[in-house]
Specification:
Keywords: Signal
Number of strands: 0
Number of helices: 7
CATH topology: Ferritin
Shape: globular
Structural class: mainly alpha
Domain DUF305: 58-199
Radius of gyration: 22 Å
Pfam family, one: DUF305
Strand content: under 5%
Largest sheet: none
Signal peptide: 1-21
Order of helices and strands: HHHHHHH
CATH architecture: Up-down Bundle
Protein name: DUF305 domain-containing protein
CATH superfamily: Ferritin, core subunit, four-helix bundle
Length: 205
C-alpha cells in the first residue's frame, strides 16, 4: 500500500513538472535593446530628461504631458503598423485621436501662458514620477509580440500620466490644465482596465 501511494505521489509530481515545463516553453522574453516598443519608450524618457523645468506647475505639466502623449502616439502608430490584433489596433487608433487633440490644447496653452509660478516641489515630484516610470518599464517582461508589448507597456505609460495628473490637481492653478488632468485620469484608468482584461484573456502572452 505504501509503495502504491508513493507511486501515485511520484506520478503527480511528474505530471505537475511536465505541465510547468510545457507552460515555460510558451514564455518568450526579448531583450529590451532589441524591442521596438521599448525603444520608443526609451526615446521618450530621454526627451523628458532634457525638459527644462520652470517651477510653474501648470506650465511644466503641459510641457511634460505633451512629450508623454507623443510617446504614446508613437507606440500606437507602431501598433497600427505592425500589430495584428483588432482590439489593440482599435485602442491604438483611439489613443492617437484623443492624445493628438490634447497635444493641440497643450501647445495652445503653452503659447499663451508665460511661466510665472514658483513651486520647485512640484518639479521634483514630477521628475521622481518620470524616473520611477522609466524603471518600471525596464522591469517589464516583453516578448517581441507587438500587440502584447503595446498593451503591457501602455499600462505603465498610462499609470505615469495618471500620477502626474494627480500632482497637477494638487499643485496647479490654471483651470484648463486641471480639467485636462481630470480627463486624463478618467480616460486612462478606463484604458488600463481594458489593457489588463485583454492581457488576462490571453494569459499575458
Amino acid at each position: 500500500m505504501k509503495n502504491f501511494l508513493k507511486l501515485i505521489t511520484l506520478s503527480a509530481i511528474v505530471a505537475v513538472m511536465s505541465a510547468c515545463s510545457k507552460d515555460d516553453d510558451k514564455i518568450k522574453i526579448q531583450g529590451h535593446d532589441q524591442n521596438q516598443m521599448m525603444g520608443i519608450m526609451h526615446q521618450m524618457m530621454a526627451k523628458l530628461d532634457t525638459m527644462k523645468m520652470t517651477k510653474d506647475p501648470d506650465n511644466d505639466f503641459a510641457m511634460m504631458m505633451r512629450m508623454h502623449h507623443q510617446g504614446a502616439i508613437d507606440m500606437a502608430n507602431l501598433e497600427l503598423k505592425s500589430g495584428s490584433d483588432a482590439t489593440m489596433k482599435q485602442m491604438a487608433q483611439s489613443i492617437i485621436s484623443s492624445q493628438q487633440a490634447e497635444i493641440t490644447q497643450l501647445s495652445a496653452f503653452l503659447k499663451s501662458h508665460p511661466p510665472h509660478g514658483n513651486d520647485p516641489d512640484f518639479d521634483m515630484m514630477l521628475m521622481d514620477n518620470m524616473k520611477k516610470s522609466g524603471k518600471q518599464a525596464d522591469l517589464q517582461i516583453i516578448n517581441g509580440d507587438i500587440d502584447h508589448d503595446f498593451a503591457i507597456l501602455m499600462i505603465g505609460h498610462h499609470q505615469s500620466a495618471i500620477e502626474n495628473s494627480r500632482l497637477e490637481l494638487i499643485h496647479g492653478q490654471e483651470q484648463s490644465m486641471k480639467t485636462m488632468a481630470t480627463n486624463i485620469i478618467d480616460a486612462q484608468m478606463k484604458e488600463i482596465g481594458q489593457f489588463q482584461d485583454w492581457l488576462l484573456a490571453r494569459g499575458n502572452k
